[in-house]
């Protein structure tokens, strides 16, 4: 009996020490994330997963890890982490954020249909989510990327009507007008002279190039773009042609 008591005491001591160590590590992980040191957050977070069962903050650990992987460009691992959070922590306050993370991972990989599905899954899972304005914005964004203009307009109108003072509504007003089309950005400059030089070069090659000015907080940005196309397929075909000619290309929206 005495041996059993001693053994139990040792086990409890080990559990307590592990729990304290985990608590200290989790604090460091949280600090690293807030500082934007995502590499440190990932390194320490992966180690902490081993002892995650000791903590009530396990769901937050998964969320911080998922976000860190997302911001570091490892979209596949981010999606894996967010998927665990969604499936294993159904009552977590971070669950809806994890749905957003899943959608964002697909969006950043260029799989816009999958991103749309994840954003819609969040609305289906929690129709009254406090993230509704963010989800509406992201749905409008991903629908525009697919050339689903009419559906995108519905969400943009919904943002204006339901969340007129939201940050997402302000972002939407700055990013999009009512004239929707695909265009390809070939360059972005801080001086109009350089933008005009690239525009002339593209025009000489037979492209319909134009310059869009954007006023930032400190300076004006001159973006050189080519084409106003109705479908993403047309945009992707033009992208291949421009890329083969050595131009750096990005499709908008």
Regions with little confidence, pLDDT below 50 for 5+ residues:
8-22
CATH class of the largest domain: Mainly Alpha
- What quaternary form is this? single chain
Shape: globular
Number of strands: 4
Succession of helices and strands: HHHHHHHHHEHEEHE
**Average pLDDT taken over every residue:** 88
**CATH level-two architecture of the largest domain:** Alpha Horseshoe
Short summary:
By secondary structure, the protein is of the alpha+beta class. It has helices at residues 2-35, 38-48, 58-72, 75-88, 95-109, 112-125, 132-145, 149-162, 167-175, 192-204, 232-244; strands at residues 182-189, 209-215, 220-229, 250-252.
Helices, strands, pairings?
Elements: H1 2-35, H2 38-48, H3 58-72, H4 75-88, H5 95-109, H6 112-125, H7 132-145, H8 149-162, H9 167-175, E1 182-189, H10 192-204, E2 209-215, E3 220-229, H11 232-244, E4 250-252
Antiparallel strand pairs: 1-3, 1-4, 2-3
What does this 3D model show about the protein?
Helix 2 packs antiparallel against helix 3 and helix 7 (132-145) packs antiparallel against helix 8. The protein has 253 residues and is an alpha+beta fold. The protein has a 4-stranded antiparallel β-sheet with strand order 2-3-1-4, covered by helices on one side. The protein contains 11 helices and 4 strands. The termini are far apart. It has helices at residues 2-35, 38-48, 58-72, 75-88, 95-109, 112-125, 132-145, 149-162, 167-175, 192-204, 232-244; strands at 182-189, 209-215, 220-229, 250-252. The protein folds into 2 domains: 2-129, Serine Threonine Protein Phosphatase 5, Tetratricopeptide repeat (Alpha Horseshoe), CATH 1.25.40; 182-252, Alpha-Beta Plaits, CATH 3.30.70. The radius of gyration is 24 Å and the shape is globular. The relative contact order is 0.06.
